[in-house]
Amino acid sequence: MYALQKSPYGFGGMGEKGLEILAQVSEQMGLPTISEVMDPSHVEIASGYADILSVGAQNMHNYALLDAVGTGDRPVLIKRDGSATDEELLLAAEQVIARGNHRVILCERGIRTFEGHARAVMDIASIPAVHRLSHLPVIADPVESAGRPDFALAMARAAIAAGANGLVIDVHDDDTQRLRCKRY
Q: Which of 32, 83, 149, 173 has the highest CB neighbour number within 10 Å of its CB?
């Protein structure tokens, strides 16, 4: 069984120093970057380094943050909270768009489950449903939804088959650290 560990002692980011490193790697590799912002006061600083700003699932309903990224010029990735409906995800996107930023990407990353084999269940049906209701691109995060790297390939294939416009594939030299998961 896998469970997400959330702890005040866990990794909390590196602040601006981390953004500087991200920008250096981006320049060396020629790849665009994305960084999560958790507070409206961080939007301007992160926009100086990252190509895309991410609103994490825990902040999908943080209207002050949605307003702040909505007034910025960077594309915004909104990750679906595990208990949010498709409509709530689209309303979060609308909050950003209403402030003037029309470059919004939605991310399906799973809904809460009672099963013990995965942290969440990727709502595959949500991908075509959101496409039917919106013009916005929808990407999927297969590893985050399952909480298990060994499920990534099957989940990624299912998301693409359902019409996802892309995938989030995080890498780490120790996947248990990246996922902050604990095996029971």
A: 149
